[in-house]
Amino acid sequence: MTKEEKGVVIEELFQKFSENNNFYITDASGMSVAQTTALRRLCFEKGIEYKVFKNTLIQKALLKMDADYAPFDEKVLKGFSGIMFSGEDANSPAKLIKEFRKKSGFKSPMLKGASIDTDLFIGEENLDMLSSLKSKAELIGEVIGLLQSPAKNVISGLKGAGGKLAGILQTLSEREN
């Protein structure tokens, strides 16, 4: 790969990192061609972009970012590195990794590190926690549900009380007659 080609790849990676607040760095070494193809197919079906890059190119692209990705240098950017870009859904790559492992019975890909809105998670031990993160849409739905709940209680209380009040008034008017 020439110096110009490397520059183009670094710029492409920088653009990807700038456009995607959430990305996962994985290690899929030891996987067969069939397993790698199955992983790529599953990523495509789930709308997750998966590419393999040289660690030095990833490192140079991350250096251009405003956030501090220095912890990735020592622990994450070693060996085989594939990057999963998930866009808005922070937990979808973690769920995909778990789903792929369950289907294939293989222990790869391994989570090396993840960046969720510039918060860094390093190591395989974070996979369960990352997969249980709620998406933006799920959080908005919960907030809307919580905001609607008190209003629904007030309305149902007024409806119920209004019916009882009308019944009491009708009974009192009937007694007077």
Characterise the protein shown here.
This protein is an alpha+beta fold and 177 residues long. The protein folds into two domains: 3-133, Ribosomal protein L10, N-terminal RNA-binding domain (Alpha-Beta Plaits), CATH 3.30.70.1730; 134-177. The protein has seven helices and five strands, in the order αβαβααβαββαα. It has helices spanning 3-19, 33-46, 55-63, 70-75, 92-104, 127-131, 136-176, and strands at residues 22-27, 49-52, 82-85, 110-116, 119-122. Strands 2-3-1-4-5 form a five-stranded antiparallel β-sheet. A hairpin with a 2-residue loop joins strand 4 and strand 5. Helix 1 (3-19) packs across helix 3 (55-63) and helix 2 packs antiparallel against helix 5. The longest helix is centred in the last third of the chain and has 41 residues, at 136-176. The protein is elongated. The mean pLDDT is 81.
Q: Which fold name fills CATH's third level, the topology of the largest domain?
A: Alpha-Beta Plaits
CATH-defined architecture of the largest domain = 2-Layer Sandwich
- Structural class, please? alpha+beta
Global mean pLDDT:
81
* Rg on CA atoms, Å: 26 Å
Give, in order, the helices and strands: HEHEHHEHEEHH
Q: How would you name the CATH homologous superfamily of the largest domain?
A: Ribosomal protein L10, N-terminal RNA-binding domain
What percentage of amino acids are in beta strands? 5-15%
* Biggest sheet record: 5 strands, antiparallel
User: How many strand segments?
Assistant: 5
In what order do the strands lie side by side in the largest sheet? 2-3-1-4-5
